[in-house]
């Protein structure tokens, strides 16, 4: 991790040359949820390949660009396309953009994702506000020699997701008549979707939804002292009793259809911050 500080400084310097605002909120837009970026008051768009040390986003539905602008009166920056372990990147590479956004000034990280529902009470298109997670990725972005300039090595993870933001998100969902649940997100490496036996195991472990992202970014956000809100769209149901075929096109379509609902919650949270 000792090279991280230099990489962060170089990435920040490049972004500052293109956009001088100090963002208060960083957003990571998951599969099928990049449409949110089109609703920002865009001030600058920077492709990942133009930023030193940023990996390239190769997953379907991920444009691979940093969209800088304003929303609900706040200065924000959105990753329109996230990075995944299954793309061959290490957990440290995946999370470098979070550290860069922190260095640029963000106070809150909002993470969105598409996920498979494990809880039988969930339905296609529902939202889940993540209140906890289980890391089964087999990797952790904090592994290695710690750079104490960033944060201490050992990190408390008893509440990585801000409880007040979880509660407020559910309030906004009720006000907007959006079906939303709180739940536990399980992260697996992918890129394959899960077997029926794996769905049974994950539900037994306490998971409510399963995906291939989110956890590395949240660990680093907690390490960096950021508040975190994470929202998942339930794009498919992983119920072992009723096996269904899942494909990436269906996942992207379901997430895209649910994006307006997620946008209402995010804009509600941003409006609270702007008050």
Explain how this protein is built:
It is a single chain. With 275 residues, the protein is of the alpha/beta class. The protein has a single domain (4-274), classed as Nucleoside phosphorylase domain (Rossmann fold), CATH 3.40.50.1580. The chain has helices at residues 4-18, 91-104, 163-175, 196-205, 215-223, 248-274, and strands at 25-29, 41-47, 65-71, 74-80, 108-117, 127-135, 180-187, 209-211, 227-237. Strands 5-8-7-6-9 form a 5-stranded mixed beta barrel. Helix 1 packs across helix 2 (91-104), helix 2 (91-104) crosses helix 5 (215-223) and helix 3 crosses helix 6 (248-274). It starts with a helix and ends with a helix.
Structure summary:
The protein has one domain (about 5-275): Nucleoside phosphorylase domain (Rossmann fold). The protein is built from 6 helices and 9 strands. It has helices at about 5-20, 90-105, 165-175, 195-205, 215-225, 250-275; strands at about 25-30, 40-45, 65-70, 75-80, 110-115, 125-135, 180-185, 210, 225-235.
Structural class: alpha/beta
How many separate helices?
A: 6
Overall 3D shape = globular
Largest sheet data: 5 strands, mixed, barrel
Beta-strand proportion: 15-25%
What distance lies between the first and last C-alpha atoms, to the nearest angstrom? 38 Å
CATH topology: Rossmann fold
Give me the strand/helix succession: HEEEEHEEHEHEHEH
For the biggest β-sheet, the strand order reads 5-8-7-6-9
